[in-house]
């Protein structure tokens, strides 16, 4: 079936094409009843703007470049769903690139997005990124950029993240309130923003309950498949009674390592993660975690970027928007004695 056009809508409703066009743009020049008729007819026939025609008319590609460390990561796949939903509703297409945790690939993919005339960029920084000069150069050329999840204070752009501090505080507090005192924290490379925020929340909860911060219980892992097990072995020599992992990927690695060593969870050691992947409640035992609002982060980031592109926000406001997290308590951290209370 051929795609319906503005001319088709105009002919069917006996209106001019300019009236239909303005009604679809929600112009104040068109009366509400006409807008209603046009929009209802357009929705009924599944009208979608022609991106090529719009790009020629507006001198914009109506394309957003999205750069993430890895699409296979559950958080980023959900965030991309949120980004695409907003972009589609506002007439934009999305091109997705992966940095695979490499600074060099991040720079190369951003250059590809710019070469393809993307109107703006949404970026979650790779673990290898510490030089932000290439982004500053793009900002000097007036390219709208919004950072999400992994962000940096060194870039003067809007940042959209989860409340990593609050989520980590809640997770650690839950473990303390269930009787744990030697809480090991397994996290990702230390220079990443979410690492710092989650570590800060962990430390703040310990401080509030007068538990000394023990740096020997902190371990940093990369993104390899076999890194967690030796770290767990090393931590077990320090007799922890709980593990708080800064991601569910790390938490599942802890779960596997502890079960191999016949360490009962949560009777001997409690475990809690961060993200709330879809299989968390199917594990044995079901895994406690902090729910990270990935889809909402993607939606807010996309909306903010499109507002910048369309000039609805004339000057980028570099502040950070933090979207609330939610603690999900399951059997991996809930002792029977606390279940009864």
Automatic annotation (TrEMBL):
Top-level taxon: Bacteria
Gene3D superfamilies, A to Z: 3.40.50.2300, lambda repressor-like DNA-binding domains (1.10.260.40)
Entry-linked SUPFAM superfamilies: lambda repressor-like DNA-binding domains, Periplasmic binding protein-like I
Record keywords: DNA-binding, Transcription, Transcription regulation
Residue intervals of the HTH lacI-type domain: 4-58
GO molecular function: DNA-binding transcription factor activity; transcription cis-regulatory region binding
One Pfam family here: Peripla_BP_3
Name of protein: LacI family transcriptional regulator
